[in-house]
Each structure stands twice: as C-alpha cells, then as structure tokens.
Design goal:
It contains 16 helices and 14 strands. The chain is an alpha+beta fold. Helix 5 runs antiparallel to helix 6. It holds the Pfam family IMS_C.
Length: about 425
C-alpha cells in the first residue's frame, strides 16, 4: 500500500494549479458535442462582420496555425472551415462555477484567479490520497461531470504549480519540485517564466541574462538596482522560490453603483445627458480601479413623488469603458422615460462584474487598433483624478450650465471645482 505521508512535507505546502484547456471552446463543445467535438473552432465576437479578433480557439484549430489574438479574416484564410462562435459569458460563468465546486470538494483552500483557473492548497487533504491521486481524481471528475479537459500542476508553491500546469497540455498532470528547477527550467529563456513579460525579458537580455538559469545566478543587488523591488522577486523566481499563499478570501464586487439626488428636477433627455455621462464616468473609474469589467448596466430613476423605477440591459460584450456604459444608460432613459416627466434622482449601476483578465473583451478591427490609446488615456485620467480630485478632468459633455458658470468664475482665481450634488453620491453600492 502506498505511504501517503511521504508526499506531504513536514513543513511547507502542496499546491495544485488547475488550468482549464481552451476553456471557452471546450465549454461550447461540452454543450453541443455533435456540432463542435474535435473540430476547429474559435470564439470571436464580431462573427457576422468577420472583422474581429480570435479570443480563443480549440486545439484542433491551433494545430492548423490559428492562435489567440489573430484577426478572424486571417484565421479564415488559414482554415476556411473554421467554426466561429459568438461569446456566451453567462455560459462560461456557469461552467466555471461548476468546476470550482468540484475542486472545492478536495479543500476549502481554493483561490480562483480567473474564470478558468484556480489554486488549491491540498497540504491538509491526505484523506483523499497522494497529490498525484488527488490531481487525477479531480481531472477525471471535471471531464466526466462537465466534459471539460484541464491540465494540473503539482508543486510546493504557487509559482511552480502554475509553471507545471503549462508543461503538459491539453489534459496533462505535471509535478515540479524545487530540486527539479535546474534541470527543467534553467535552460529556458526568461520570458517562459510566469510573471516575466517581453519588456522585462528584453531588459534582462541587455544585462546579459538570457536564460532562467542565468537569472537564478544573477547578483540580487544588481537586479534590484535595475528593477527595484521586483529585482528580488526575479532572483527568487529564477530559483523557483515563492512565498505567496493560497487566498480563499479573494472576492470582488457584485455590482458598482452611483446615484445622485439632483439640485433641481430635470426634464427630458437633453437635461439628463450630462448627469448620466458624469455617473457613467464615475462608475467606470471605480470599475477600472478594481480591475473589473461589466456585462450589464442598470438605470435608476426616481420621481419627485419618490416613485423609483429601474431598467437593465445586457451589453454586447463586457466593458470598462465609460463611453459604452453611458450609451447603454442613455438608451434606457430614452426608451423608458417620457420626455415631459420630471426626474428627482438618477443612478447608474454596473452588473455582471468579472475580473478583466477573465473576460473575452471582443473588439472589431478598428477598436483593436485604438484600444491601447484608449487604455492609456483612461490610466492618465484616473491618475489625475486620484491626485487632484474627481473634477480634475471633465469632458465637455459632463458640464451642466452650473458647472460652466462656476468654471468661468473660478478660472481667473485658479481655484478648483468642488464636489456638489452632481458628483456626490447619496448611495454607493459595491
């Protein structure tokens, strides 16, 4: 009989990293195997116009040379029979919750880091067998119960577990011990180490550090001199050392909302526009601050007689953009509110929140080219507001008559706009 205890160190941890393989495509295959099983498929938002970007693709498609981030038109030239599928985020969340529940049955120490991956600390899970036995049972159950393939890494820390799960794909199980690091990792280029991006790898090359082994042997003080506190992490990572713990308490907001009671009742779409834009901008900023995207927008309207109505709509794709949120809120107002009825309070609430890295944000070709500039602008505006206050940056559309007058009054004295009821909130919900 196998001695289970020999696999569990007297001190230290045993960590699993579970990584679902081609998750979005695998979900569609599990839902409709007759249509998708074993075929070249790709999830892409702009399916009809074929101007979009491949979000993910099946392994059958990858073997043909199709990859994530590729333009749909190029993918179709490579494989004219490629099956394009429109994203279904609610379906992905359903399957994500399901595989997490299976994983949770082996340990309460589960940290979901994205929609398709999680860490498990199984140090106290001896009753289920050895770490390889637990990994095999978990992988088998996810396939049998959900029809989804996954790869699992087994290691003494999160960093090595993450790297191990990438060693055998799809549907593999790999063990990576500290003593294996020199033979398995040190001959690989630095950019193959999880957490080291292309820019950092280029900087390392300029320092004469090309491989993970060279990184492991590098002088820590020199690394700190060039990379700051990250230099110490680079040195530890090169040697397979990671002190991070599995955090089962990682949570995120279920919704982000902002409402304002207006200084005077507003009537009609024209008067509501700057208020809705202001609200949309504020909730979008809070969304970005938490690293989230929203799949739905809810508009709240309260009348002078205190009657409150709410109207919601789903977005075509998750977003962090104030522009998208504003358009949805404006559309709801125009569709559901009579032009001559006064409004006392307005609110915008974002729903269906997920971590940005979890979500397939599908862009058409034009937006794909603009996106880096848009994100840079958002970061710059957020930074200015963090430092100088909410009103440090205002777009022209946010300015009501009172804002414009106050801007003129304060311009000569160089004073800043102070918050009023328009930018304040009677109720914030996270």
């Amino acid at each position: 009989m196998q001695n289970v205890d020999q696999y569990y160190p007297a001190s230290g941890r045993v960590i699993l990293h579970v990584d679902m393989n081609a998750f979005y495509c695998s979900v569609h295959e599990a839902e409709d195997p007759e249509q998708y099983k074993g075929k070249a498929t790709a999830v892409a938002g702009s399916v009809e116009s074929r101007r979009g970007i491949i979000v993910t693709c099946s392994y059958a498609a990858r073997r043909l040379g199709i990859s994530t981030g590729m333009q749909v038109q190029k993918a179709l030239r490579i494989c004219p029979s490629l099956i394009l599928i429109k994203p279904d985020f609610h379906l992905y969340r359903k399957y994500s919750n399901a595989f997490m529940q299976i994983a949770y049955s082996y340990t309460p120490l589960l940290e979901a880091v994205s929609i398709d991956e999680c860490y498990l600390d199984i140090t106290g899970s001896r009753q289920f067998g050895t770490p390889p036995q637990i990994a095999e049972a978990l992988q088998r159950r996810i396939m049998e119960e959900l029809g989804l393939p996954c790869s699992i890494g087994i290691a003494p820390n999160k960093l090595l577990a993450k790297i191990a799960s990438d060693l055998k794909k799809p549907n593999g199980i790999s063990v990576l011990r500290l003593r294996d690091v020199p033979s398995i990792l040190w001959n690989k280029p630095c950019n193959e180490m999880f957490g080291i991006g292309s820019k950092t790898a280029e900087k390392l090359k300029k320092l004469g550090i090309y491989s993970i082994g060279q990184l492991a042997a590098a002088d820590e003080a020199m690394l700190v001199g060039h990379f700051g506190v990250m230099g110490s992490w680079l040195k530890r990572a090169g040697n397979g050392i990671d002190h991070g713990v599995v955090n089962p308490e990682r949570e995120q907001s279920k919704s982000i909302g902002h409402t304002t009671t207006l200084p005077r009742d507003v009537v009609g779409l024209a008067e509501a526009r700057p208020i809705l834009l202001n609200l949309s901008d504020q909730v979008a900023r809070r969304l970005r601050k938490q690293g989230l995207v929203a799949a739905g927008v809810q508009l709240t309207i309260r009348t002078p007689d205190m009657k409150t109505i709410t109207r919601s709509r789903q977005l075509e794709a998750p977003t962090e953009s104030a522009e998208d949120i504003y358009k949805a809120a404006l559309d709801q107002f125009a569709r559901h509110w009579k032009g001559d009825k006064p409004v006392r309070l307005l609110g915008v609430t974002l729903q269906g929140l997920t971590l940005k890295e979890d979500s397939a944000i599908q862009l058409d070709l034009f937006d794909y080219e603009r996106q880096p500039k848009k994100e840079s602008l958002n970061k710059a505006m957020d930074m200015l507001r963090n430092k100088f206050g909410e009103n440090a940056v205002l777009t022209a559309g946010m300015l009501t008559d009172s804002h414009s007058a106050r801007l003129r009054n304060h311009k000569e004295r160089g004073t800043s706009l102070q918050k009023d009821n328009l930018s304040g909130a009677d109720r914030d919900t996270d």
